Amino acid sequence: MVPSHGRKRARSDEAEPSVHTVAGASREKGYADGPISHAKFSCPRGLTLDICGNLIVADSDNHCLCKITPDGLVSTLAGSGEQDGYVDGPAPDARFNVPSGVVAAADGTLFVADFENHCVRKVALDGCASTLAGVGEEEGYVDGPALSSRFFCPCGIAMDVEGNVIVADNGNHCLRKVTP
């Protein structure tokens, strides 16, 4: 608050904090691409901005990654939006099982904490999904070579300044580092 000299009032130089819905048609879960006012999500969890300014959403119960463009269009980026599973490959064929965290690298690659598949996935700029670390659908706790390692319900994900992927390994109660 800034006093208003000579007047019996105070004014604020800062706007009042407020909350507004950014995307999603209602408080009901669902699956729908389109304008942000009509799009539907089911348990959106992880969020990141990509190199183009798109908001990437880990839509957990729809088992997909969604992209929200700066002009307000929502589309499925990878995964089916209707069926869970564990499939690497082109974006429309890729399958996730409760993607919970997502982070964008400086080169545009996305890294995903795939909770129920117990692994870390990578989505390249061309939309192709692949496994970065873990043995899909096999939980556990094993360090070592990335594709032989084991996770137990990874949920959060971040990148350090050196480009390593840091994973919150929920079921193992620890943080793990993956060197891509």
Compact summary:
The chain has strands at residues 2-3, 10-11, 34-35, 44-49, 55-59, 64-68, 73-78, 99-104, 110-114, 119-123, 129-133, 154-159, 165-169, 174-178. It has no helices and 14 strands. It has a 5-stranded antiparallel beta sheet with strand order 3-7-6-5-4, with no helix packed on it. A 4-stranded antiparallel beta sheet has the order 8-9-10-11, with no helix packed on it. Strands 12-13-14 form a 3-stranded antiparallel beta sheet, with no helix packed on it.
Detail the topology: elements first, then pairings.
Elements: E1 2-3, E2 10-11, E3 34-35, E4 44-49, E5 55-59, E6 64-68, E7 73-78, E8 99-104, E9 110-114, E10 119-123, E11 129-133, E12 154-159, E13 165-169, E14 174-178
Antiparallel strand pairs: 1-2, 3-7, 4-5, 5-6, 6-7, 8-9, 9-10, 10-11, 12-13, 13-14
InterPro entries: 6-blade_b-propeller_TolB-like (IPR011042), NHL_repeat (IPR001258)
Protein name: SMP-30/Gluconolactonase/LRE-like region domain-containing protein
Biased composition (Basic residues): 1-10
